[in-house]
Amino acid sequence: MVNSALGDDVFGEDPTVNMLESKVATLLGKQAALYVPSGTMSNLLAVMVHCKKRGAEAIVGNMSHIYKYEQGGAAHIAGVLLATIQNKPDGTFDLKELEKKFRGEDIHEPVTSLVAIENTHNSCGGKVLPVQWIDEVAAICNKHSVPLHMDGARLMNASVALKESPAKLVQGCDSISICFSKGLSAPVGSCLVGSYHFIEQARRLRKMLGGGMRQAGVIAAAAVVALDEVLPKLVFDHKRAQILAKTIQGLLLKTFTVDVEGVHTNIVMVQISDRSSLLSEQLVQRLEQVSLTETQGDCKTANDEGVIVKAVSFSDKMMRLCLHADITDEELWMAIMKITFVFKELDEACPVQ
Ligand SMILES: Cc1ncc(COP(=O)(O)O)c(C=O)c1O
């Protein structure tokens, strides 16, 4: 970041941003890429470029990030209606149902102008979409002349898990958003990827949204490092996630379960039994507070050493744990000591009825 060559990216003159964009376009086998501040902006730009007319409709999974966590930007800013299709637990959805969802022939209906899928699927626990399924979705979209966007915030995790090139995973997609700030562990930034024409339009709209950054090479440099140095190590996050999942499941507690087979990448979802009064918010709080000393039988509550376990509550009964490049084996073991201690404690305190 310190040594990156800089210029004004709004004029397309930042060499580091330009290098990142062409690197990403090549990696994904597409013509062009656009560096943007966030995954949310990247997805919104895709919706805005693909859905040319206000009142158009985009089909997205009911568990998708675009639908659940992006402030309804598609409706708010683009004037696009999000129609949801039910996600299966593996992040896919039913293709027959998709076929029935396309609308626009009837004068009463909005015109379906986009389909979006998510890979890996965050709310479904970092699940990797099967390549064949993606290609089938693409074929259906093609038949209806509707573009396909992939929210690939964690596409590189999917590529590593499948041992397939990212280009193969997105071969049927017209646009893709990838994030450097998730498993790739850069501080900030995403890329929107697609054809020259698509990216040209997105570049204008990025300016309108206030996402045109000047000497952005400072942060783009971190994204280059993420691709060069963190990407080859994602496999270790996946291995650590397996260890974590198996350890939790191996505790054989009635209150907590992990679907070990369902851990495809760096995300571990912990299910709390419906028959326990415990809520995942309480679990998250306790994990954040517990000290290592306490786990050794001492009564201190301050976080005195080691790691802090910061998890996310996804619903009352579901908590997400996530591995990334900054977590070493040693830190994982310290986290496991805390997790084991807290899980046993709460399993006793809030027994399954
Ligand atoms: C699948 C997915 N898409 C998009 C985003 C949005 O990324 P950002 O937080 O950079 O806006 C996230 C963020 O967690 C995500 O998980």
Automatic annotation (TrEMBL):
<dbReference type="Pfam" id="PF01212">
    <property type="entry name" value="Beta_elim_lyase"/>
</dbReference>
<dbReference type="InterPro" id="IPR001597">
    <property type="entry name" value="ArAA_b-elim_lyase/Thr_aldolase"/>
</dbReference>
<dbReference type="InterPro" id="IPR015422">
    <property type="entry name" value="PyrdxlP-dep_Trfase_small"/>
</dbReference>
<dbReference type="GO" id="GO:0005829">
    <property type="term" value="C:cytosol"/>
</dbReference>
<dbReference type="GO" id="GO:0008732">
    <property type="term" value="F:L-allo-threonine aldolase activity"/>
</dbReference>
<keyword id="KW-0663">Pyridoxal phosphate</keyword>
<dbReference type="InterPro" id="IPR015424">
    <property type="entry name" value="PyrdxlP-dep_Trfase"/>
</dbReference>
<dbReference type="InterPro" id="IPR015421">
    <property type="entry name" value="PyrdxlP-dep_Trfase_major"/>
</dbReference>
<dbReference type="InterPro" id="IPR023603">
    <property type="entry name" value="Low_specificity_L-TA-like"/>
</dbReference>
<dbReference type="GO" id="GO:0006545">
    <property type="term" value="P:glycine biosynthetic process"/>
</dbReference>
<comment type="similarity">
    <text>Belongs to the threonine aldolase family.</text>
</comment>
<feature type="modified residue" description="N6-(pyridoxal phosphate)lysine">
    <location>
        <position position="182"/>
    </location>
</feature>
<dbReference type="GO" id="GO:0006567">
    <property type="term" value="P:L-threonine catabolic process"/>
</dbReference>
<keyword id="KW-0456">Lyase</keyword>
<feature type="domain" description="Aromatic amino acid beta-eliminating lyase/threonine aldolase">
    <location>
        <begin position="3"/>
        <end position="273"/>
    </location>
</feature>
<protein>
    <recommendedName>
        <fullName>Aromatic amino acid beta-eliminating lyase/threonine aldolase domain-containing protein</fullName>
    </recommendedName>
</protein>
